[in-house]
Amino acid sequence: MAMCILVFMILLNLPSSHSFSDELCIDKSATVPQSDVDLLEFPLNLEYFEAEFFLYGALGYGLDKVAPNLTGGGPPPMGAKRAILDPFTRDIVLQFALQEVGHLRAIKRTVKGFPRPLLDLSAKSFAKTVDKAFGVPLNPPFDPYSSSMNYLIASYLIPYVGLTGYVGANHKLKSAASRRLVAGLLGVESGQDAVIRALLYEKAMQKVHPYGITVAEFTNRISSLRNKLGHTGLKDEGLIVPRFKGAEGKIRGNVLAGDQDSLSYSRTPKEILRIVYGGGDERVPGGFYPKGADGRIARSYLQSA
User: Fold this and answer.
1) What stretch or stretches form a coiled coil here (predicted)?
2) For residue 305, pLDDT beyond 80
3) Which of 21, 80, 113, 127 could share a disulfide with 142, CB 3.0–4.6 Å?
4) pTM
């Protein structure tokens, strides 16, 4: 009987031990298909963006001080700075920031990745995006770092684009380890987006000073801009929508964005680049990425320009 128990325990532990070593190995080049590598590396562009924006917003400094080993020697972001945040908002932003550090580490533990690309996180860069969303320059120019409300509106720009990319990539991944990583990343990115949307939804009808424009209108305009830049129809929704676009066509409140079945929308890398470059063309860098995104997928579009 004792021998049977011993044999059983050995057999029980073998698969677990094998899986652990396979999935947490630092170098995945031998086990992750190249197509998976490309799809796992591409999100680093947005993860770098989120990590730096949230770190600077909460602390006034970024990866170069918090986790310099994750930058790959890439240039520091342009224009990022500590935001004027109330204690509650700062606490949430700091949590997001540290989560993004973990995301970068998890991706780079699975694939080699690439150095941090040049990011333009200046107030001017955000103002250009918001002006484009409204079709006219706001006066004074929108400054994401000037208040908690402005910072949350600027944050509305970030995790949602990333999560749609993870949704779009998941079904294309071939290895179980890749899918598990993306599922884990998607869960937290979706949570971040939900928190941001919920905080904004609570004040949806409040007017943003000094513009006299409601929070809901800001989100609706930004979502409409992302739909326009993506060139693939409706994949983005603001906080207040026509009733027929709400859940089951029965409600205008839209704290979470989703399709007719309340499933998350998906985007391809090409669509994401069109949005974050700010010009609707995946071949032309600009916006938050003055010199373009990195990784084989992003570079392939730049080379075809």
Assistant:
1) none
2) no
3) 127
4) 0.89
